[in-house]
Amino acid sequence: MRPATLPVELSAPCCSGRGVVLERPARGWQRRQGPVLASQPARRTHQQQQGSGGGRAAAAAGGGGTPAHPSTRTAAYAAGLGSFASSMAAAATATEAPAAEAAGQRQGAQQPPAGEAQRDSDGLLRNRPRPLKINLDLALYRARQKRLVANSSRMLSDRSRMLREVEEALRRCMEAFPEDGRPYVSLGKLMVQQRRYKEALALYEEGCTATGGTNAHIWSAWAYLAAKMGNVGLARKLYDAAIVANPTHAAAWHGWGLLEKDQGNYLRARDLWLQGIQSLRRNPNPYLYQSLAVLAAEMDCVEEARKWFREGTRTLTGKASHALWQAWALMEQRQGDKAMVRPLYKRGLEVSPRSRYLHLAWALWEKEQGDVEEARRLFKQGNERNPRDAAILQAWGLLEEEAGNIDEARRLFKRASKVDPNHLHVWQAWGCMEYRQQKYDTARELFQQGIWVAPPRAPAVCLIFQAWAMLERDAGNPELARELFKCAVKADPKSEPSWLVWAQVWAQMEEDLGFLQRAAELRSFNMQEHTEIVKPANFASGLGGEDKGAGLLAPIFGQIAKWFKRYEESGSDSDIELPELLPLDAVPKPEPEPLVAHACPELSAPVYF
């Protein structure tokens, strides 16, 4: 008698094009040719085994019965094993169903109500085959690759068709594995990309219900969408739910902190990132350190930013993160410390040789320092390691234009437009170069091409409208230039270059045309749109012992500083009344710091980390 076997699915076909099915008998392995099974059948219950035994006994005795519909398990085997297995399974089912029904009646088994399906301990239907986990992983990988190909497709029809196929594949994954959160997140991301926000919200809610609220990735994706739609209160609640589901989910801490930073709550953002670092002590996340350091640098706390950068680069993940090294180098670049910039960029490229961001940032800095050859070398190296990156080609083209190599710049811009036709900055830079070369018709065509390929409501398109407006102004078309300026401001109301052009160029153009009132209104409206980030009064670093007392005595020191300022302005202290200092009981007590960074010696120029 042949021993029982267990079918095992292999994803890769054999050389002959047919799948290989390995059977594991009681002793050893056997290899035979046959079709690849798409799923692993569920184990038969004790009741089904009894029914099968009774059916075989009845068949041996010559008994018969009315044939019943084949079960889903039997149908799966019939589809996989061919016509011979189909006939054998049908015969087994014909004798198995009456005996199984009789056994169930004898045992007093209660049948489920009509329309209600039974589920096993894993939440899957009992009477259907259980898919293998590898099938879900492969399906998600193929859907992701197809989505990337669709996003880079030039034809709208091909892109729409591939995205529909991706959505269908993800929905099949959700149906087969409703307890897995990855299909919900992937499909929700696709819907957000297509601006189907209401469907994405319903999908995330369905995913949280299916997973029992234990998947932090779905909560974080839901919170990001809520913040994107402007519902800040809901986004805070969803980020909180994600952290409750998984306190070590770094994306929830980071996303919540960015939300509070965008709302102007800098202290709250800093506290959230500190709590995230404390919760992820065993597995540190470099982006939390980077966000803390960048926030401190924006608040003019340079020493605190340096301490956070050092603390982050001491961890294993932070040491291998090119984002930390680049952000640190950019901060030192703004501070004017040239001795620190090159070692930091070099260290970043050592840990991540293919980082396009490091190549681009370092080459642009060398260009600012006047070292054109070094900048050209970095651009060339970055292009060799990232041939599909249009930003490096665009910056390289600008370098060649400034060096006087117009033909080489055109060649680089053309390569960049073929590599990524949707890169707006390539069309804008190329059009501006032709505009400076007095080739207005060519520049207009390039600007128009950039506007055509721009995504709907893309803020970056304001740069193209602004450059095109300048071209039309110089070409003697003030009416068209006025409309293009309006389009630039409507595309991105927060664009600083657009407001600067509005104040200096558009207002001057209106004044030259004789519209003095309109020019005055434009200048006045531009002054109202300027914003400034103000550092909170109690934004203390909390990193070392020298700064711990600043938060406690900040109100007292503030009153003393005001008194000294008044004293210096008056020039005499005879008529100055000393201010009444706040009692220590009225000063709020500082909470214990969750993290203290240790001191680190300063870096020197020849030392590489």
TrEMBL record:
UniProt keyword Methyltransferase, yes or no: no
Keywords: TPR repeat
Cross-referenced SUPFAM superfamilies: TPR-like (SSF48452)
GO molecular function term, any single one: single-stranded RNA binding
Repeat (TPR) residue spans along the chain: 390-423
Biased composition (Gly residues): 51-66
Renumbered residue ranges of the record's region Disordered: 26-73, 96-128
PROSITE patterns, alphabetized: TPR
Translocase as UniProt keyword: no
GO BP annotation list: mRNA processing; regulation of translation
Low complexity bias: start-end ranges: 96-116
Name of the protein in its database record: PsbB mRNA maturation factor Mbb1
The species this protein was found in: Chlorella ohadii
